[in-house]
Amino acid sequence: MTMTMARRRVARWAACALAAAACVTGVAMPAHAYRKTPVPIASATPTAPAAGSMLAGKTIDIRIELKEYLRATATSKENMHQLHMEFDAHYPDKVTAEECQQIADTFWSGTGPEFKPNATYAYESCELDAFYSGQLRHAFYSLDESGHFQLRAPMEYLTQVAASFENASIIQLEVNARHIRNAQCNASPSSQDVDAPLLAGTHTTTCWWRTSDGAAIPTTDEPLIEGDIEDFFYTYDLGTNGPFVDMTLPINPFTPPTPTASEDATPDAASTNQPTTRGDSSTGLLIGIGAAIATLLLVGAGALVVALRRRH
User: Fold this and answer.
1) 31-73 tens-digit pLDDT
2) Do the domain assignments include residue 68?
3) CA-CA distance, 131 to 299, in Å (whole number)?
4) How far apart are CA 183 and CA 206, in angstroms?
5) Number of domains, the chain
């Protein structure tokens, strides 16, 4: 058993080393090179799971990372923010490929031109990644005209994700911001690397929260990093000024759908204690008034006939 676990760790370390080498050289590693199996991403709106209903009988550790990401080719480059989640089960249990598909279907659904979701299953671990470009990046950062930068992670949503499992907890959070200086980490991280030299006189800041070090994982969407922006953020990362925007992707199964205009205009019969056939009641009232008028006319005509007979 110990030998098996050791082999798994060696395999994962080798995969990480290969992936790191690919990042340094700017070359994308093929998925099959380190045995990652792609998991399909659904586009339909998911159904919210009942709290504590997913992966019953297993204890799940969740690790989260938010960082900037550059996708470069020979002819173009695309600057993004990458949100990464990893789900692992405590030994001897494991996350299966079918369970990884269930996790992806529930929490990573949706499509969009500035949103690229991805899910993989490897080494009995389920990994979800989402890449945000363009204006969708402002789901994570705000930047005002004075150059003040703030970075946040969608911890309210991710906390709901963890609560959907029978026994799961977020044990690690890592947040990184490049090309800022005079930075600070908020929410009491367990460790931090602030204003570390990056390149061409620029800086990067990383904050870590690990429950193993006694840190409390943030549960709100309050900014986790803030500082002063550097020019490289505009010229190299192609960042833009703007406030935070709502994170609409992946589709949040815990948020009720917004009613349409026609639904908003429909009266709420339960709240008014009125029947839903309002049009029928109005029509009945008009018919009743017409019948009363007709009766009065008949009575008047009869009286006129009687009066004429008496004159003769």
Assistant:
1) 344 578 999 998 777 888 888 999 999 999 999 999 999 888 7
2) yes
3) 82
4) 10
5) 1
Ranges 19-23, 108-112, 194-198, most confident: 194-198
Q: Is there a domain that residue 123 lies in?
A: yes
- Cα 181 to Cα 72: distance, rounded to the nearest angstrom: 25
- Whose tokens are 């990184």? That residue is 176
Q: Note down the domain range covering 197.
A: 56-245
Radius of gyration of the chain (CA): 31
Looking at this protein, which amino acid is placed at residue 35? R
What's the token pair of residue 259? Answer: 């009613």
Q: Is residue 183 part of a domain?
A: yes
pLDDT digits (tens, 9 = 90+) for 65-122: 999 998 887 887 889 999 999 999 999 999 999 999 999 999 998 888 999 999 999 9
Q: Is residue 192 part of a domain?
A: yes
Residue 294 parent element (H or E): helix 278-311
Give the residue carrying structure tokens 């249990």: 93
Q: 225, 186 in Cβ contact below 8 A? A: yes
Task: List, in sequence order, every residue forming a beta bridge with 181; answer none if it has no partner.
Answer: 228
**Cα gap 278→289, rounded to integer Å:** 17
pTM: predicted TM-score of the whole model, two decimal places:
0.72
Which pairs count as long-range contacts for 9-15, CB under 8 Å and 24+ apart, including other chains? 11/35, 11/123, 12/123, 15/122, 15/123
Amino acid, single-letter form, for residue 122: A
